[in-house]
Design brief:
Length: 155
């Protein structure tokens, strides 16, 4: 297996972050390679500028230690909700943009990205982490300890 390192991305990585985000969106939403995502690119760039700067979003890349090629990415958005018995601090994280290149899937890289982001959340006192999952990734998330929410709805 390839030796990888997980590195936190910063504002200096903005073009690369946006590029990877567009790659993720194209795959997740089954978009054509030539689909015009220019508006989404601008919106994501603005998002990263604001939320990386204020610490409410942490992004990372998985990098092959030998070739230095980026082979995956991920992020977590931090937000506050009303404190509750299962989340007394009210801090929660939304895990997102977990992605690895198709050529390296099933090599544990996604797991390392997720574990890196969960560790960051724990250091920040985050007691609740949410995510949306593809059917393919559910097994991995379940192995890590995530469970389905029966009463979750979306409008």
């Amino acid at each position: 297996m390839t030796k990888i390192e997980i590195v936190e991305a910063g504002l200096e990585d903005l073009p690369l972050l946006v590029e990877w985000r567009m790659q993720v969106l194209r795959e997740v939403f089954s978009m054509e390679r030539d689909a015009d995502l220019s508006l989404l690119e601008k919106q994501n760039e603005a998002y990263y500028k604001k939320h990386l700067a204020d610490g409410s979003h942490i992004a990372c890349f998985a990098r092959d230690q030998d070739s230095h090629e980026i082979i995956g990415c991920g992020g977590i958005c931090y937000q506050k909700e009303l404190p509750s018995p299962d989340n007394p601090s009210g801090t929660n994280g939304y895990l997102m943009n977990i992605y690895t290149l198709p050529k390296v899937r099933t090599h544990g890289i996604g797991r390392k990205i997720i574990e890196y982001l969960i560790e960051d959340a724990r250091k920040k006192g985050t007691e609740k982490i949410y995510l949306e999952s593809s059917k393919v990734a559910k097994k991995l998330y379940n192995q890590i300890g995530f469970t389905d929410l029966e009463d979750y709805m979306k409008l």
